[in-house]
């Protein structure tokens, strides 16, 4: 059925003017006038069309618009020569057209109006379809004014991808792998909510993370708290250097503890920093440690390390050879005594502990021990209940420790980790460069000791032994 010609235009078959007929034209036709990204400078405003005498009955001639319709992707009306479908001619005898004042309304005459979401791309909101799409033709699909991210950076600051390490979609110019181009339901036009957008590609991580009970807080709120979604100068597109640049951004309390510690944990100096011990995402263990706590410690402390002018013990082998262990070792909790982030005390201990054989008794010197042990153990001269190490009711812990100036410290008799003797009593004790024998012999009611520091003394819990 023929329709009447539009005022100032050519006769137009109603079916011919429909987009599906345009695709049948001999030229490749693209009818999409939707937006992709950003606006493009330099595109002539359709409201500023020039006027000059009409010399030919058609627009596309060698003298008028010779290049029109020759590009790879051509708008349907251009392909069929229906210029007046969009441009309204004012007078038949002149090449003069009315300004197009509402570009979006003109586009929606053919294209279904976008069902906008909560977040709308600025060019769409402002009705500037031609900010991203050419109304005539283009060398790019959907008649876009540029390819991939080149179009986006007509508006967006290119510095966001300046880092040396680029996110995969950014590296190949696929902004729309993460962002929708017209409107969406999520901030920044993301294709999914929070981490869902990341998981659309990183499905292996989603599966891995779901299987573990302990989750790093940013995993619940957004990967972008640690990772730059575009580019970074750091591996994994992290927002900063491992530990100092990433972890300390949130863990400011740990930053102070680690940076100000007088005695540093060597593990923090390893490549990876915090990640040498902690998983940045999820873990099967509390505090996101990579392994069961003691197993984690022994994964490094299975060899000697030089520490200052001394060496740390090869602890894994040492513990394997000694069956009577200190309580924290039995609980597989090295952090019961050691602060893994750093300390003001030697051997990164959590409190004061005398490093020498002798010291003047002061409760403050035994801060570490008294975190677990009752201080009355060395304060009360007489007892029948506090300890089995007594001669009658004479408390032999008090006798050894509570002296001035030469009180024997805990380390004089006990190893802080393990031995093959009850109560982890040492076979020998370090006395300067000499390993002094302790010489403890126990029986059912007491025992005797013959160390290198005094003659043999005997003790009995039931009946006081008078030693010379």
Element layout with pairings:
Layout: H1 19-22, E1 29-30, E2 52-53, E3 73-75, H2 76-79, E4 94-95, H3 103-107, E5 119-120, H4 122-125, E6 137-138, H5 149-152, E7 165-166, H6 168-171, E8 183-184, H7 195-199, H8 203-210, E9 214-215, H9 217-221, E10 231-232, H10 247-250, H11 252-260, E11 282-283, H12 293-298, E12 305-307, E13 310-312, H13 315-321, E14 324-325, H14 327-330, E15 358-359, H15 376-379, E16 390-391, E17 394-395, H16 396-401, E18 407-408, E19 418-419, E20 428-431, E21 434-437, E22 440-442, E23 446-449, E24 457-460
Parallel strand pairs: 1-3
Antiparallel strand pairs: 2-4, 3-6, 5-8, 7-10, 9-11, 12-13, 14-19, 15-18, 16-17, 20-21, 22-23, 23-24
């Amino acid at each position: 059925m023929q329709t009447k010609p539009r005022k100032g235009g050519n006769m137009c078959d109603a079916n011919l003017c429909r987009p599906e007929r345009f695709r049948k034209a001999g030229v490749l036709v693209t009818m999409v006038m939707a937006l992709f990204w950003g606006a493009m400078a330099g595109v002539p405003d359709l409201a500023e069309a020039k006027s000059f005498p009409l010399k030919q009955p058609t627009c596309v001639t060698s003298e008028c618009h010779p290049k029109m319709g020759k590009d790879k992707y051509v708008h349907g009306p251009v392909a069929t020569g229906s210029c007046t479908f969009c441009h309204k001619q004012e007078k038949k005898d002149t090449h003069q057209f009315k300004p197009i004042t509402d570009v979006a309304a003109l586009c929606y005459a053919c294209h279904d109006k976008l069902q906008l979401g909560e977040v709308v791309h600025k060019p769409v909101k402002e009705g500037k379809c031609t900010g991203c799409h050419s109304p005539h033709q283009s060398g790019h699909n959907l008649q876009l004014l540029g390819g991939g991210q080149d179009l986006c950076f007509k508006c967006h600051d290119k510095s966001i991808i300046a880092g040396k390490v680029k996110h995969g979609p950014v590296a190949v110019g696929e902004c729309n792998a993460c962002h929708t181009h017209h409107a969406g339901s999520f901030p920044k036009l993301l294709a999914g909510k929070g981490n869902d957008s990341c998981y659309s590609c990183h499905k292996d991580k989603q599966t891995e993370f779901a299987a573990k009970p302990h989750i790093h807080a940013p995993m619940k709120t957004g990967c972008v708290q640690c990772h730059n979604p575009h580019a970074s100068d750091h591996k994994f597109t992290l927002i900063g250097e491992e530990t100092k640049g990433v972890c300390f951004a949130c863990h400011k309390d740990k930053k102070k503890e680690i940076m100000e510690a007088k005695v540093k944990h060597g593990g923090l100096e390893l490549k990876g920093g915090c990640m040498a011990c902690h998983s940045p995402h999820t873990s099967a263990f509390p505090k996101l440690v990579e392994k069961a706590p003691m197993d984690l410690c022994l994964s490094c402390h299975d060899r000697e390390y030089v520490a200052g002018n001394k060496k740390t013990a090869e602890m894994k082998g040492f513990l394997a050879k000694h069956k009577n262990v200190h309580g924290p070792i039995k609980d597989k909790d090295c952090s019961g005594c050691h602060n893994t982030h750093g300390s003001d005390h030697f051997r990164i201990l959590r409190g004061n502990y005398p490093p020498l054989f002798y010291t003047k008794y002061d409760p403050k010197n035994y801060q570490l021990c008294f975190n677990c042990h009752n201080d009355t153990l060395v304060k009360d001269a007489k007892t029948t209940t506090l300890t089995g190490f007594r001669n009658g009711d004479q408390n032999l812990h008090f006798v050894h420790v509570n002296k001035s100036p030469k009180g024997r410290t805990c380390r004089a008799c006990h190893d802080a980790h393990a031995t093959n003797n009850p109560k982890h009593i040492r076979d020998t004790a370090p006395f300067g460069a000499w390993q002094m024998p302790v010489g403890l012999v126990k029986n059912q009611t007491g025992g005797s000791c013959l160390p290198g520091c005094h003659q043999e003394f005997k003790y009995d819990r039931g009946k006081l032994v008078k030693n010379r």
